[in-house]
Amino acid sequence: MSSAAFTRRPLAAWDIFSGPHSVSGTVKVLTTPAARPVVLMDEESWLVVRSTQSAADGTYAFPKVCAGSWRVFALDDQGAYNMVGKDRVVTQP
Protein backbone atom coordinates (compact mmCIF):
# COMPACT_ATOMS: atom_id res chain seq x y z
CA MET A 1 0.00 0.00 0.00
CA SER A 2 1.44 3.34 -0.96
CA SER A 3 0.95 6.54 0.92
CA ALA A 4 0.73 10.05 -0.37
CA ALA A 5 1.38 13.30 1.39
CA PHE A 6 -1.20 15.98 0.76
CA THR A 7 -0.39 19.62 1.12
CA ARG A 8 -2.85 22.41 1.37
CA ARG A 9 -2.96 24.37 -1.86
CA PRO A 10 -3.73 28.10 -1.51
CA LEU A 11 -6.91 29.32 -3.12
CA ALA A 12 -5.56 31.32 -6.02
CA ALA A 13 -8.91 32.96 -6.79
CA TRP A 14 -9.15 34.27 -3.24
CA ASP A 15 -5.71 35.87 -3.46
CA ILE A 16 -6.17 37.33 -6.92
CA PHE A 17 -9.58 38.85 -6.22
CA SER A 18 -9.01 40.07 -2.64
CA GLY A 19 -9.15 43.77 -1.92
CA PRO A 20 -10.66 46.48 0.29
CA HIS A 21 -14.07 46.69 -1.42
CA SER A 22 -17.37 44.84 -1.11
CA VAL A 23 -20.36 43.68 -3.12
CA SER A 24 -23.73 43.47 -1.39
CA GLY A 25 -27.43 43.33 -2.17
CA THR A 26 -30.77 41.69 -1.40
CA VAL A 27 -32.25 38.46 -2.75
CA LYS A 28 -35.99 38.50 -3.34
CA VAL A 29 -38.44 35.83 -4.48
CA LEU A 30 -40.94 37.88 -6.45
CA THR A 31 -41.12 40.83 -4.02
CA THR A 32 -40.36 38.99 -0.77
CA PRO A 33 -36.82 38.93 0.67
CA ALA A 34 -35.52 35.36 0.90
CA ALA A 35 -32.61 33.30 2.22
CA ARG A 36 -30.89 31.69 -0.79
CA PRO A 37 -27.40 30.61 -1.87
CA VAL A 38 -25.54 33.43 -3.65
CA VAL A 39 -22.36 33.21 -5.74
CA LEU A 40 -19.96 35.93 -6.81
CA MET A 41 -18.26 35.46 -10.17
CA ASP A 42 -15.54 37.38 -11.95
CA GLU A 43 -17.17 39.40 -14.75
CA GLU A 44 -14.51 38.56 -17.32
CA SER A 45 -13.58 34.93 -16.65
CA TRP A 46 -16.84 33.69 -15.07
CA LEU A 47 -14.74 32.15 -12.30
CA VAL A 48 -16.67 31.58 -9.07
CA VAL A 49 -14.78 33.65 -6.52
CA ARG A 50 -16.97 33.42 -3.41
CA SER A 51 -20.27 31.97 -2.25
CA THR A 52 -22.53 32.73 0.68
CA GLN A 53 -26.09 32.34 1.95
CA SER A 54 -28.31 35.40 2.12
CA ALA A 55 -29.87 36.15 5.50
CA ALA A 56 -33.57 35.66 6.24
CA ASP A 57 -34.13 39.30 5.21
CA GLY A 58 -32.47 38.55 1.86
CA THR A 59 -29.30 40.55 2.45
CA TYR A 60 -25.90 39.23 1.41
CA ALA A 61 -22.40 40.66 1.33
CA PHE A 62 -19.06 39.71 -0.16
CA PRO A 63 -16.50 41.78 1.76
CA LYS A 64 -12.83 42.19 0.91
CA VAL A 65 -12.94 41.94 -2.88
CA CYS A 66 -10.95 43.99 -5.37
CA ALA A 67 -12.51 46.90 -7.20
CA GLY A 68 -14.20 46.05 -10.44
CA SER A 69 -17.24 44.58 -12.07
CA TRP A 70 -18.76 41.27 -10.93
CA ARG A 71 -21.56 38.82 -11.70
CA VAL A 72 -23.87 37.82 -8.84
CA PHE A 73 -26.20 34.84 -9.01
CA ALA A 74 -28.90 33.89 -6.52
CA LEU A 75 -29.82 30.22 -6.68
CA ASP A 76 -33.18 28.72 -5.80
CA ASP A 77 -32.24 25.71 -3.72
CA GLN A 78 -35.94 24.87 -3.34
CA GLY A 79 -36.49 24.35 -7.07
CA ALA A 80 -39.52 26.61 -7.49
CA TYR A 81 -37.87 29.36 -9.56
CA ASN A 82 -35.03 29.82 -12.02
CA MET A 83 -31.65 31.15 -10.96
CA VAL A 84 -31.41 34.93 -11.10
CA GLY A 85 -28.24 36.67 -12.24
CA LYS A 86 -27.03 40.22 -12.28
CA ASP A 87 -23.96 41.30 -14.21
CA ARG A 88 -21.81 44.41 -14.16
CA VAL A 89 -22.28 44.71 -10.39
CA VAL A 90 -19.77 47.32 -9.25
CA THR A 91 -17.91 47.17 -5.93
CA GLN A 92 -18.55 49.57 -3.09
CA PRO A 93 -15.74 51.23 -1.10
The N- to C-terminal Cα distance equals: 54 Å
Number of strands: 8
Q: How many helices does DSSP assign?
A: 1
Order of helices and strands: HEEEEEEEE
- Going by helix content, strand content and strand pairing, the class is mainly beta
Rg of Cα set = 16 Å
Spatial strand sequence of the major β-sheet: 5-4-7-8
Beta-strand share of residues: over 45%
* Major sheet details: 4 strands, antiparallel
What are the key terms here?
93 residues, single chain, four-stranded antiparallel β-sheet, two-stranded antiparallel ribbon, mainly beta, 1 helix
Fold topology:
Elements lengths: L11 H6 E9 L1 E2 L2 E2 L3 E6 L5 E6 L5 E7 L3 E6 L9 E7 L3
Antiparallel strand pairs: 1-6, 2-3, 4-5, 4-7, 7-8
Describe the protein.
This protein is mostly beta strands. 6% of the residues lie in helices and 48% in strands. The protein contains one helix and eight strands. It has one helix at residues 12-17; strands at residues 18-26, 28-29, 32-33, 37-42, 48-53, 59-65, 69-74, 84-90. The strands form three sheets. Strands 5-4-7-8 form a four-stranded antiparallel sheet. Strand 2 and strand 3 form a beta hairpin. The protein is globular, with a radius of gyration of 16 Å.
